[in-house]
Amino acid sequence: MKSRLEMLHELSCGLRKIGLEEREAVAEARYALTFLLEVPLSELYLQGNELLSVEHEQKLQKILQRREKGEPLAYILGERYFMGLPFRVGPGVLIPRQETELLCEQAIEKIKQEHLERVLDICTGSGCIAVSIAKFSKACVYAADISMSAVETARENAHRQKVALQVVQSDLFLNVQGKYDMITANPPYIDDAAYAGLEYSVRQYEPALALRGGTDGLMFYRRIAMQAPAYLRSGGYLVQEIGYDQGEAVRTLLSEQGFAEIEIRQDYAGLDRIVWARWLR
Q1: Looking at residues 239-256, what average pLDDT do you find?
Q2: In terms of domains, do 52 and 171 share one?
Q3: CB 258 within 8 A of CB 229
Q4: Is 106 among the domain residues?
Q5: How many domains is the chain partitioned into structurally?
Q6: I need a surface site. Which of 128, 180, 232, 281 has the fewest CB within 10 A?
């Protein structure tokens, strides 16, 4: 039998062999071990010489085998952390990305500053944005997604985090009612050419419905820019995640529809990541 640290090393090496960089491989190995053993990271190291059970060894080997085939760790474990919270994820639902946390943080800050009451998150996926806003603010949050799998997952994550969240199945605003102080969205924005070049694990396992934004990647931004005004209160905010090269194009779409105070904000890598706009009519 192997010790915890021996298995950590073995998993890390195995993940390096499938193309992960060392830091990412170690992080995945740590997460898999702590998840399976149900122990904090500190205990993993403090009791690193403790031997694993045969059952745990076998489960970890199966995890590595599935990763070697390209399956994302989040789908294997059925969980991904976002904003410090565990979210259930599975096939049919996009895996939350760390860069999207920046949108959440900024939205929550604005909600608190201006005491915004009603927030709608469209293209909600796992519900990571909507649930996080509900968890860390006093706003009444609503969510929508075209995928029933996503709707069910978002509802489950809301229940898991003990927050009130109304989720409807809707193609953007089709089944949405009412007006909101803020609308957030992380819509599909990968253009067709870029999608063909995505890494295998993303194309093979994550839902194309949540990734593909048409020929130029702007299909959903056009629809949102046209439809969102009908669902925003005067003075309301539209906050969207974008691809690194889409800032000016999305700015133009929003400006053409009458939005004001349009601002492109960068992520921690200095890349365009979030577009803020305000409806003042």
Answers
A1: 97
A2: no
A3: yes
A4: yes
A5: 2
A6: 281
